[in-house]
Amino acid sequence: MHGQGMMQQQEMLMTEIWETLNDDQKMTLMKRMLDAKIMMKEGMIKHFQFKIETMKMVKTMLDEC
Q1: Which residues make Cβ contacts (< 8 Å) with residue 20, sequence separation at least 6?
Q2: Which of 55, 35, 31 is nearest to 43 (CA)?
Q3: Which of the four pLDDT bands, split at 50, 70 and 90, describes residue 2?
Q4: In this predicted structure, what is the pLDDT of residue 7?
Q5: CA angle, 24 as apex, 11 and 29 as ends, to 5°?
Q6: What angle do CA 19, 7, 9 make, to 5 degrees?
Q7: Inter-residue contact 41 to 49 (CB < 8 Å)
């Protein structure tokens, strides 16, 4: 199964799982999903900070030449 079909299958599974959860479990799951998004964004920020530091370092090296 490729792309679209697999996504639809995953969505159906998540919908089925969601319907079986109680309110507390849904709240916990939503919090974890938000935490995952926050962690991903923080990782992206750290990556860009590293790239910026590297570019500044290269610029300094080139300025010294």
Answers
A1: none
A2: 35
A3: low
A4: 84
A5: 40
A6: 50
A7: no
Q: Which two tokens stand for residue 40?
A: 């991903």
The Cα 26–Cα 14 span in angstroms is 12
User: Count of residues for the chain?
Assistant: 65
Of the candidates 39, 41, 44, the one whose C-alpha atom is nearest the C-alpha of residue 52 is 44
Buried b (16+ CB within 10 A) or exposed e, 22-31: eeeeeeeeee
Q: What six digits make up the tokens of 19?
A: 């319907």
Helix, strand and coil in the chain, % to nearest 5: 90, 0, 10
